[in-house]
Write a structure and sequence with these properties.
Blueprint (H helix, E strand, L loop, with lengths): L5 E2 L13 E4 L13 H13 L3 E5 L5 H11 L8 E4 H12 L4 E4 L24 E4 L14 H9 L4 E3 L5 E4 L2 E4 L1 H10 L4 E2 L6 H15 L8 E5 L2 H10 L3 E5 L14 H12 L5 E3 L5
Parallel strand pairs: 1-13, 2-3, 2-11, 3-4, 5-6, 6-7, 7-10, 11-12, 12-13
Antiparallel strand pairs: 8-9
Length: 289
């Protein structure tokens, strides 16, 4: 992969023939939690018709059905993808192996759907817990990771590993950036705690996604002909780098506020990627054909 990215203008169409499959992020690429991005969805529809399968790969800490339910609400068409692989599904595989726990949960108090059907005991007692599972901050959308410092230090003293169901540090909902589970995982690691992250950029979610892409294609697709699309340098782009995939960085996602009107997008995106220590073969402000 080249260290100097190519700006895809006018769109994905100029390099689509080089690829037989796409792994695309969801939040920040095809919708923002409030509305679908029409040109992005149309680009994936066109790729599916003309080139090959599209697998959506998301760090959402929920099962696939919850992800696609949001699609119906915001207007993402179901014919722009072949399947959805979520960090929630990959996390459930990890949790299943740790049954019966007990598991110390951190997340929205009224949402324990990630644990449905798993033979797990949940506990609020750190002295009994064998594992922490962090799905989100407890207060949505205004929680801040600093509020968890004492709790995390206490958990660290017990030496309990943390499973982070959503490695994203922040995500964009409409025009607002919201702290995510990855912010607590990052803080826990900085305290010396052990973190297991089944989602991007880790291998569990990529293994599932690549397997499903090959199934949809009906053959094993060479990794040099798979394009990974995403707006998160530390998750989407690093995951692509770690798994030998070409990457396309989308600027209008979580870093959208950093690119103002009239800015030299290619130069600014290149600088951002260098600061993050990742390499993207291509960049675009937003995904389109």
């Amino acid at each position: 992969m080249t260290s100097s990215p190519q700006l895809l203008s006018p769109g994905l169409s100029i390099v689509a023939s080089a690829y037989d499959g796409i792994l695309s992020d969801v939040w920040g690429v095809i919708h923002n939690g409030r509305e679908a991005f029409g040109p992005a969805c149309e680009a994936l529809q066109r790729f599916r018709r003309e080139r090959g399968p599209v697998i959506l790969i998301t760090n959402a800490p929920v099962a696939k059905a919850r992800v696609t339910a949001v699609f119906d609400r915001v207007g993402v068409p179901h014919d722009c993808y072949d399947d959805v692989i979520s960090s929630g599904d990959a996390t459930r595989d990890v949790l299943r192996k740790s049954a019966p726990g007990p598991v110390y949960p951190i997340g929205l108090p009224n949402d324990t759907s990630l644990y449905d059907g798993l033979d797990l005991e949940l506990t609020s007692d750190p002295s009994r817990a064998r594992l922490i599972c962090c799905t989100s901050l407890r207060n949505y959308p205004d929680g801040h990771p600093d509020e968890y410092a004492d709790e995390l230090r206490g958990l660290r003293q017990h030496g309990i590993p943390m499973v982070c169901a959503n490695p994203d540090v922040v995500f964009r909902h409409g025009d607002k950036l919201i702290w995510s589970a990855g912010s607590l995982a990052k803080a826990y690691e900085e305290m010396g705690g052990t973190v297991i992250a089944p989602g991007k950029p880790g291998s569990p979610i990529y293994d599932l996604s690549l397997r499903r892409l090959n199934e949809a294609a009906g053959r094993n697709v060479d990794r040099t002909r798979i394009l990974a699309v995403g707006d998160g340098p530390s998750t989407d782009i690093r995951g692509a780098n770690d798994h030998a995939l070409d990457a396309l960085f989308i600027g209008d996602g979580i870093h959208g506020g950093e690119f103002g009107a009239g800015v030299d997008f290619l130069a600014e995106a290149s600088s951002l990627l260098v600061r993050e220590g990742v390499v993207s073969r291509y960049v675009m402000p937003s995904l389109n054909w």
